[in-house]
Design goal:
The structure is a homodimer. By secondary structure, the first copy, chain A, is an alpha/beta fold. Chain A is about 45% helix and about 15% strand. In chain A, helix 1 runs parallel beside helix 4. At the A-B interface, helix 1 and helix 5 of A face helix 1 and helix 5 of B.
């Protein structure tokens, strides 16, 4: 009985996600679901990414998922993009019904890309479709080499990994080759970009990747 | 209906946890539920702690919670203590029914302390009583200053915080005073021990704390 009800919850979530995806596709908006452990650097990555996108005339909006507090949302306020905050009040991941509400606060025809910063958690967010085009996993080098094999679902589902805090490598026991070997085992096509967001390292490749995604989305829709 | 069933699940978990706690109390075994984000250093802390406890003739056992793989369990095998592995197969936290099974694999009359290394997750494990005497939260400095206020439940529930990777402070933007202020707001009595497990810094205070807990447990039971 519990299992059946959990299935219903997941089904309801996925149906709503499919609905949101169809709506956002119609409006040519590219959606990134950003997932990582607490403290891997998701918000810092957004702080550094927003000005680079603005310089390319790509119009972004943010949905901030947090268990408690508006700290991350406040950090992104100065960047002059719409920021919608979802406090999950203890829940360990975002669901599509909250995303729907957040979207209603945006002027969608003035947006090219939406970043959804999920709750800091390497496990649960990977299980819930929230209408995104891609899941981007952030892994930071201080978390250790073994995270890809220990938390395989996210790395299986992700379209891109940002390997963050690469500037700390010399102080850590992180084995870069083992990391790449584990990625190759779990998801052979998975793209990795090495960055150090707080030091502005590697961000150009990441922003070029985002730009290509946004462009591709617009072209795809034009041919529909 | 879903809410009622979730309550039943939590109730069943808590009832089983109370049962385990009563059993472990009778046997004077002190139980630590170790909780943190992925990569904060729980396994490394155990690797460094086990020899120090052995030197004090404190007999330890480990229950390893992992979503997939036996990597952490394998790392602890060389320390000549009983290690029981629970693979949660995707689940984001341990529950007391799994702990009961793990305990059945131990010779409990030859154990003074059990460490339960929970799934790497700052959210869900804090919600589930698994029969422990104390929750010990591990937070590592690369995760950032804001984690206490952003994930308040764990720090509210914990009896001790190990602030790990303190050796990296000079390379990071971690504000020690803000961290302590946040701790004081959420849980004024919460004890903090600063450590760098991989560098053997601060471990003596941690092991002394454990020893005092084990001793207290034995004395309490003698007077019952």
């Amino acid at each position: 009985m519990l299992i059946k009800i959990m299935q219903n919850v997941l089904e309801a979530n996925d149906n709503k996600a499919a609905e949101l995806r169809a709506q956002l596709n119609k409006q040519n908006i590219f959606v990134v679901n950003l997932i990582s452990s607490p403290g891997s650097g998701k918000t810092t990555i957004l702080e550094k990414t927003l000005p680079l996108l603005a310089a390319k005339n790509i119009r972004a909006a943010i949905i901030e998922g947090d268990i408690a507090t508006d700290k991350d949302a406040k950090r992104l306020e100065p960047f002059n993009v719409p920021v919608a905050l979802i406090n999950t009040d203890g829940a360990c991941h975002l669901e599509s019904v909250s995303i729907e509400k957040a979207l209603q606060s945006f002027a969608l025809d003035a947006i090219d890309i939406i970043f959804i910063e999920n709750v800091g958690n390497l496990v649960c967010p990977a299980e819930f479709d929230i209408g995104e085009d891609v899941k981007v996993a952030v892994l930071s080098t201080p978390e250790g080499t073994d995270k890809v094999s220990k938390y395989p679902l996210l790395f299986h589902e992700a379209s891109l990994v940002l390997l963050n805090k690469i500037d700390l490598l010399e102080y850590l026991d992180f084995h870069v080759q083992t990391f790449y070997n584990d990625v190759a085992k779990i998801h052979p096509d998975l793209k990795v970009i090495e960055i150090a967001a707080s030091k502005n390292i590697g961000l150009e490749e990441w922003v070029d990747w985002l730009e290509a995604c946004v462009e591709k989305k617009k072209k795809t829709m034009r041919h529909d």
